[in-house]
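Most newcomers find our protein records easier to grasp once they have seen one. To make this concrete, we reproduce a full record directly below:

===
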Amino acid sequence: MAVNVPAPAPVQWGKKSNFTKEDGSMKALATIAVGGALVLALWAPSVGAQEIKDDLKDIRQDRQEIREDTREIRQDRRELREDREALREAIKSGDKDAIRKARRELRNDRHELREDVKDRQDDGRDLRHDRRELRHDVRQKRHGK
């Protein structure tokens, strides 16, 4: 009894088989894309948490700088009072060199006070900016963005 088995199909050059290198590459690319999406989904919440931590650190630093500026301003004002008193004493004594020196000290201390007030204003602006960033990052984290 003879069994009729069809002969294998001849190999045709240029025709792609059911599974080619491109199919394998596409599967690998899809696997990488899915893996990347998974990593991003797990990583994104931690990025928000790190940004919030950084914002809180910046706010603490801004507050510290404002306290330092305030101390310097108090010291500048004490020096100005002393300079005014020294100028009054120099005028009473009539010593022209002492008067010039007292006026120079007063002028320099006024300049220092203006600079310290400006620094404190800049630090206050930085603090407001960092607080705004913190609010933004907290909103982003809450809404899962």
